[in-house]
Amino acid sequence: MTSNYAPDGATQLEIYKRAALLKANDERSRKVIMTGRLVMPYYSYRGQEIIPSAMAQALTDDDYWVTIYRGIHDMLAKGMPLNDLWAEVAGRVDGTCKGKGGPMHLTYPKKGIMVTTGIVGSSMPIANGIAWGSQLSGNNRVTVATFGDGASNIGAFHESLNLAGVWKLPVIFLCQNNLYGEHTAYEKATSVARIADRGAAYNIPGVRVNGNDPIEMYAAAREAVERARAGEGPTLIEAMTFRFHGHVFGDSDAYMDKDQKKAAMDADPVPIFRARLIAEGIASEDELAAIEAQVESDIDAAVEFALASPFPEFDELTKDVYAEGVAA
Amino acid sequence: MSDTATKTKPITILEAINTAIADAMAADDTVLVLGEDVADPEDGGVVGVTKGLSTRFGDARVRSTPIAEQAIIGAAIGASLVGYKPVAEIMLMNFTTVAMDMIVNHAAKLRFMSGGQTHVPIVIRTMTGTGFSSGGQHCDYLEAWFAHTAGMKVVAPSNAADAYGLMRAAIDDPDPVLYIENLPAYWTPGEAPETGHVVPLGKAKVVKEGADVTIISYSRVLNEVLGAVEAMDAAGVSAEIIDLRTISPWDKETVFASVAKTGRCLIVHEAVTQFGVGAEIAATLQSEFFGKLKAPVARLGAPYAPVPFSKPLEDAYAPTAARIAEAAISLSK
């Protein structure tokens, strides 16, 4: 990996701000569900925070992102406001989708967040189309499609990488390899040791990086963004990480290797990043504590905002099905 | 082709579709075309429906794709989210099965799931229909699946003028439209539409007025219904014939007005009868007109079986003029 795009201190601090928000938001989400204040299907991304924090830092607000059901970290990193997010996952009318999408369908076009899909692999075909739009209009925007390691085994992945390769689309396929596809360990479901190697089959550069390392992840993200903006086509990034919890909140994670999980949690990327920022003099303990306190207070406000927001009226059932409403 | 559309010279359905897309592309730079073999180096489509478009509008807007239906519909959806109006071709209706996730879970639902923040103004063109000995995987009518999917619109023209007008309406519609073309009927000539002619979605057409029985159909078999008129007349049965044109949302107003007059209804389609479009219309009519109908609402479609290869079996599969006449006469006794 080239070091041309190594983040400077200020950039690292911005990445950390996102990571701190994501980590706190996941912890709060699980707490709010556990205490019964909210009911929702929740796919924890704890442990994967660095990947979207660094990726989003390499983008502008105008760039596009398509993510999946385990994607709240992606959305927050890309700039979805907390109030809009929390009201949505609470099913309230002030949610970004008026409560009609929920945690698996978060959408916020104002920050380029175009689709969240609940279908494994389906972020990629749509991301191609958005990127095609950028190619046609020459708006110089990049589209990121995130997905998990499991999604690299579904047909949509292969169709999408091939088309993006043929059309040289300004798209980045960002695989967050957390070593489990739902309940099944990576090596039991995937025929190659490295998903990045699959890029070669489609004439697309494929790079594997330590997604938990903000320096490495940011450099890979920047390189892919520059390639896309230069009209050189797509990049496949395989960002290695680990999912600290089960597939969905409430599932027994007995299928996860205990030692592997403990080692991953001991190497929690967010506190490690934090310690390094202090050790390298990029930020002081007080500065970071202030960032974290602000995040907690923002989340407090968002949760209260969400729970105070009304549920949608029943007439919303048949609104937004079509532009003109549903015929009686 | 596009500049020659006049009222005087008949054109085929194929030419009408081609002209409609060309006129839409000329009028609006955001209209795109993609699909397998659609560009001119690939013959402008396997039967030439999109011939001339890539030459006239360029390779950027008219793109042949890999044989990858998920990728095709995904690309159409994505482009539509950022302001384009893609017309995606899925060569054969049976191939939509390969793209069902993109169509059903995404195209149809993104407007709703995003709370109206995004929408998917795409047209999915697809051809189908028995008659060319294609067997079980190349000519099914699967319109009921899509009509059953909230968020999708479904149209199926039976003639050239409607083919043009429905295509123009479909491209301009802000929501996803499945546009069903019949393969054997592509070369059927008909009255040419004026440039810019629009057939609004959701509007049926009373093709022939009558007093005894309402016959509702769409796509190619509508012409079989017209072919049954002579036999019905000879039997003293006066049929009112409605071309539904749009399957979803269907034109209840026109259908209700007709059935209120005739008191009898036969729905004819090439798809299998069970769980089909006819079932939805029949249930609606029997609820609306319970006690006023002179006979139970009847349906005529294909048997509950895959399309067969052997020619005599294939010929017996879809409703024919003779079977339609027999059913309508029997219903009107």
Rg of chain A, Cα atoms, Å: 19 Å
Distance between the termini of chain B: 48 Å
CATH class of the largest domain in chain B: Alpha Beta
Beta-strand residue percentage of chain A: 5-15%
How many domain units of chain B? 2
Quick one: CATH superfamily of the largest domain in chain B?
Thiamin diphosphate (ThDP)-binding fold, Pyr/PP domains
* Greatest interface: A-B, 49 and 44 residues
Structural class of chain B: alpha/beta
Q: Give the rounded overall mean pLDDT of chain B.
A: 96
- CATH fold-type name of chain A: Rossmann fold
Cofactor (chain A): thiamine diphosphate
GO molecular function (chain A): pyruvate dehydrogenase (acetyl-transferring) activity
Keywords (chain A): Oxidoreductase, Pyruvate, Thiamine pyrophosphate
Organism (chain A): Sphingopyxis flava
Question: What structural keywords apply?
Answer:
heterodimer; A: 328 residues; alpha/beta; Rossmann fold; six-stranded parallel β-sheet; two-stranded antiparallel ribbon; 11 helices; 8 strands; 12% strand; globular; B: 333 residues; 2 domains; seven-stranded mixed β-sheet; five-stranded mixed β-sheet; 13 helices; 14 strands; disordered N terminus
What can you see in these coordinates?
The complex is a heterodimer of chains A (328) and B (333). Chain A is of the alpha/beta class. Chain A has one domain: Rossmann fold (3-Layer(aba) Sandwich). Helix content of chain A is 43%, strand content 12%. In chain A, the strands form two sheets. In chain A, strands 2-1-3-4-8-7 form a six-stranded parallel sheet, sandwiched between helices. Chain A has a two-stranded antiparallel sheet with strand order 5-6. In chain A, helix 2 (50-57) crosses helix 8. The termini of chain A are far apart. The mean pLDDT of chain A is 96. Chain B has 13 helices and 14 strands. The radius of gyration of chain B is 19 Å and the shape is globular. Chain B folds into two domains: 2-190, Rossmann fold (3-Layer(aba) Sandwich); 205-332, 3-Layer(aba) Sandwich (Rossmann fold), CATH 3.40.50. In chain B, strand 2, helix 2 (53-57) and strand 3 (62-64) form a beta-alpha-beta unit. In chain B, the strands form three sheets. In chain B, strands 3-2-4-5-7-6-12 form a seven-stranded mixed sheet, sandwiched between helices. Residues 1-6 of chain B have low confidence and may be disordered. Chain B has 333 residues and is of the alpha/beta class. The longest helix of chain B is centred in the first third of the chain and has 15 residues, at 13-27. Chains A and B meet through strand 2, helix 5 and helix 6 of A and helix 3, helix 4 and helix 5 of B.
